[in-house]
What we know:
alpha/beta, three-stranded parallel sheet, 3 strands, 41% helix
Amino acid sequence: MTGMTAWVGLNLVEVKAGDVIFISGAAGAVGSVAGQLAKLRGCRVIGSVGSMEKVFFLREECGLMLPSITRSVRSLNN
């Protein structure tokens, strides 16, 4: 189901070679598959992740050499 969700999402917006796509939650189940499918289509993939470990996962396990945006959340009490 994960792969189908990623595939349908890319087809709905008619992603093609040369496009730049942004994936929020790029290290998640759907996001990581969407990134790989977009790369196979010749797209430049930019994704957001929550930690450096997830950046390494995307690069080492998924083969995505994407510019990653690491987001952090500060406590509202600080």
